[in-house]
Write a structure and sequence with these properties.
This protein is mainly beta and 49 residues long. It has one domain. It is built from no helices and 4 strands. The strands form 2 sheets. A two-stranded antiparallel ribbon has the order 1-2. A two-stranded antiparallel sheet has the order 3-4. The radius of gyration is 11 Å and the shape is globular. The two termini are 22 Å apart.
């Protein structure tokens, strides 16, 4: 979770947010499973199950 995301909390130098609290336009750390690259990406849309 990027530190500028509203509602993010810090624990041991890393920022987190509960999954159910993530909203569109939040910045989250994403993993490219093919290349193994991690980067921050903006959430485009969320879904409710």
């Amino acid at each position: 979770m990027h530190q500028s995301t509203p509602g993010a909390f810090e624990k041991d130098g890393v920022y987190y947010k509960e999954v159910q609290d993530i909203k569109a336009h939040d910045m989250v750390r994403a993993l490219n499973e093919v290349t193994g690259e991690e980067r921050y990406s903006r959430v485009r849309q969320t879904f409710i199950r």
